[in-house]
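Journal club prep — side note

Before the paper discussion, L.F. wants everyone to see what a predicted structure for a comparable chain looks like in token form. Sequence:
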Amino acid sequence: AVKFQAKAIQELFPPSGPVKAQIVGKSTPEREDQSNRVQDFMNYQTTEQMPEYFDEMERMLFHLPLIGSAFKKVYYDANLKRPVSEFVPIDQFYVSYYASNLRKADRYTHVIYRSPVDLAKDIRTGIYRDIELPEATNPEPTSFSSKMDTIIGLSPTGTNDPQYTLLEQHCYLEIEEDYALPYIVTVEEQSQQILSIRRNYKKDDKNQEKVSHFVHYRFEPGFSFYGFGLMHFLGNLTMTATAAMRSLVDAGQFANLPGGFKAKGVRIVGDNDPISPGEFKEVEATGQDLNKAIISLPYKEPSQTLFNMLGFITSAGQKFADSTEQIVSDASSYGPVGTTMALLEASSKFFSAIHKRLHKSQRDEFKILAQINYDYLPSEYPYEIPFAEKNIFKQDFDGRVDIIPVSDPNIPSNAHRMMLSQMALQMAQQSPPGMFNLEALNRTILSAANLPNLEQILPPKQEPQQLDPVSDIMAATKGIPIAAFPGQNHDSHIQVKMMYLQDPQNGANPIMARLKPILESNIQEHSVLKYQEQMNGMARMAMEQLPPEQQQNPSVAESAMAAAAQQVMNANMAAGQAESPEQQMVALETAKVELEKQKLQSTVAKYSADSALDAQKLELEEAKLM
């Protein structure tokens, strides 16, 4: 029951609030604003204006799995001047035996316990008639509450806490018409005096349908009005397990401290008090064998078979109540995500169905709350939330916006959400680039993990700006998206970025490898955009030369584009074969350098030959002198 309560409250009441609004019909900017106002205000209501909502929801979610049925009552409190949502225990709600649901029930009664102080306040406010009532007494506890008090260890406070017992009966009476209409009659039980009679239908409702103030939460639908809980499903297993455990404990106690018989002639020194564990008393024996004079009863050790049966019964109950936890804890041993998802799905069918019923009942509760807002809110109601001031309008609750719980009825836990996110992430990693929106996928995964400050971790995506080539490279290093724009000098962008990627000190450096796919993609964009601009220019010139009636023909336009593509290809091929003036200048300068190099080489060779000849002359002169 505690596990169920923990999982359910996490899904039904997230920190930001339990309400989500969706537009009924066609979406327009006006309706989107209305939907946002309704969602923000009702989340403010359930988290701030109605502080009892969370506590009452938790109480209800603890009773629900045990008993099978629980009720929430949503109404406008004239004392507090605001809506109230309170939990009604099952022993304080009585319904007609033949009713199948609250809508079809001819009558149902809510038992209300009010202290004399609270009742006097209600009378002053005008909720009840100002009549003379007997002294308040202590109400007789029901068999259900008595049993719960015995289990928990509580007891009534005697005459120190008197209470009035009010019976708020929702029924059909013939008062204003010749036929029965829905009314709410409140009676003080002890004196049987009527405190109030209120019409329970709207004056402008032609059908005069009953207004519902109660929501029935069911754990599992039963054969009658009430649902089934764990007490019904696991009660016999629980009693069997308790009996087995008591037998094991008793057997262990008797085995550890056995009793026995002693012969009549054997007398124990001192009194006959029970022997404490580990105590040996002196015995006066008249020469007979003590083993024969004292006999211990043959108590056995706790039965291993009974112990195994206890484990089986406990395991059977746990598997029925909640087997999802074990699947999630052992998920690493199952292998692929698909296998784990299949096991998780199969194990959580029971809780998934309960979660859908909770989702539907909470939606009914929010509809009642929205109707109360429409009936009691002023035309404009300002309210404050942290760091903002907002307004809500009465007409925002006109029915054009549907109020639904923020929980997903198809995904009952974060475990399911995380496994689905992991499966999507694996598919994204194995799929071709561009097929998945990785930013949206990462945002979904982090949201499923309830990560705080999500907007700071994943800020809104920045739009690329029209920049020069070097500024594009700088923006890419900072993670800012870059793009090609019409009208840019595409050749300059392509040349600068290709040179940067080939530069060993810059783009070709291994530490800049992250930029390579970004710049290559941008180069491709510029190349395609350049081709598109060339094609459009050629095709437009060709179309302008045609008569106006042919310009509207799609086939003629396609032919013009084909001709333009041929012209662009021919021009690009010719540009690739012919050298530009700059390239011719570079070739000329290269030839000049080569000629200068050859002249230097010939000059060096001449000087070398002259030096060798002078050396020979010197040697001849030296020989002649010798």
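L.F.'s comment for the group: The radius of gyration is 45 Å. Keep this in mind when we get to the figures.
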